[in-house]
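Sample entry follows:

_____
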Amino acid sequence: MTRAACTSTLNYYQGLIPIVVEAYSADVIATLILLKKEIEGKTGATIKMTIVGATEAHLLVEEIAEANIGIIFKPSRPFPAVWEQRRVCVHPATLALVHAFLYVT
């Protein structure tokens, strides 16, 4: 591994650069939460993470807030076009609740 690559990876572990992951389903988001907690537990470092997409984030609001993970909704007003997106949150009032509990980036 090159010196630049090591320095870049170290910036993630030190929380200087956020790790941005594109994820839409609650299953993948839950796995990312567990992965973040595991790495933080083993290294003792705080990792900044932001999830882009997050159409099913409303199912894991408390877990995401507890893990201090940022969210970027993409698209901002999702619509379930395929079966895998069936649990998408499309009601603006529900999105407002999600915004109230989460740090939305």
